[in-house]
Design goal:
Layout: H1 7-20, H2 31-57, E1 62-63, H3 65-76, H4 83-96, H5 106-109, H6 111-120, H7 122-125, H8 133-138, H9 142-149, H10 153-190, H11 211-216, H12 223-228, H13 244-254, E2 258-259, H14 266-272
Antiparallel strand pairs: 1-2
Helix pairs in contact: 2-3, 2-4, 2-10, 3-9
The protein binds zinc ion (2 copies).
């Protein structure tokens, strides 16, 4: 995997986009623009969580090549690098969760590095070995390898299209602000969800469930559930745990667009429902 941007340029572009969110204050306010922010934030969030996270990293379900390309395109438009890069490094997060080797653990490397620093540290995280399961199995799919290599193209096309259609207001509310809110919604899973929230399962890492991050990261905030059982297509294990990514996967299954959808096993539910200790973690057997 080779990157399209030299590291110094990638860092400059990242901070330029972060700063660009302020453009929303330089255009006239309209509620329709807030709706545009929501569509851009939440649709691309589903692309990230459904395709990059639950499909490429965890193989929680199967989907058709066409559906995979659509969601992978939307995920790449989030400007969080390519699908192989994203999902490949995520596997290392689970492998070393909150121990040496975890690319982004606030316990190991501090809040800033776990939130943003690691993402910009190309010297450390540019490449993945060919043996990484994501690279090994999806690196040979031409359209996915292309997206991973030219990951800057979808966000650029999106930004340009919004600007040509609706001028600065559409660029500001449809690209600049939602790209920034989505970046922090994603990064918060790596930081907030390893620091603040409740622990249903006594996992060996610091993962926590947090309804606020679950809202902005379309279901990923049930992160302690996820660390306990990564393979499940749902991260909200109960109906009251808001998980829009799961609702989309379930709808795709109903339409025949997704199959081999991995459920949460009964033994995991049994573990969840065991009496809790004072710390809120189930009593071990
Ligand atoms: Zn985690
Ligand atoms: Zn995961």
């Amino acid at each position: 995997m080779s990157r399209t941007l030299p590291p110094a340029i990638a860092v400059a572009v990242f901070w330029l986009v972060q700063a660009s969110a302020i453009t929303v204050f330089f255009v006239p306010f309209a509620w329709s623009l807030v709706a545009l922010w929501a569509v851009s934030h939440f649709l691309r969030a589903i692309g990230l969580t459904l395709a990059f996270h639950r499909y490429f990293a965890h193989r929680a379900f199967q989907m058709s090549r066409g559906a995979r390309l659509v969601w992978a395109l939307l995920g790449t438009a989030a400007m969080q690098k390519g699908p192989l890069w994203w999902a490949g490094h995520h596997l290392n997060h689970h492998r070393f969760a909150d121990r040496e080797g975890d690319p982004h653990s606030p316990a190991v490397s501090g809040f800033y590095y776990a939130h943003i620093g690691w993402f910009l540290n190309d010297a450390q995280h540019d490449t993945l070995p060919a043996s990484n399961p994501v690279v090994r199995d999806f690196g040979r799919v031409p359209e996915i390898a292309w997206l991973d290599r030219y990951y800057m193209v979808p966000p650029l096309v999106l930004a340009l299209g919004l600007f040509l259609y609706g001028g600065l207001p559409w660029l500001a509310w449809g690209f600049c602000l939602p790209t920034v809110t989505l970046a922090h919604a994603t990064f918060a899973i790596n930081t907030v969800n390893h620091l603040w929230g409740t622990r249903r399962f006594a996992t060996e890492d610091d993962s926590r469930n947090n309804p606020v991050t679950a809202f902005f990261a379309v279901g990923e905030g049930w992160h302690n559930n996820h660390h306990r059982y990564q393979r499940a297509a749902r991260n909200g294990f109960y109906w009251w745990e808001w998980d829009p990514t799961w609702y989309v996967i379930a709808a795709m299954r109903a339409l025949g667009l997704a199959w081999d959808v991995q459920a949460v096993p009964a033994r995991i539910y049994a573990e969840a429902e065991r009496p809790a200790t004072a710390h809120g973690t189930p009593v071990p057997e």
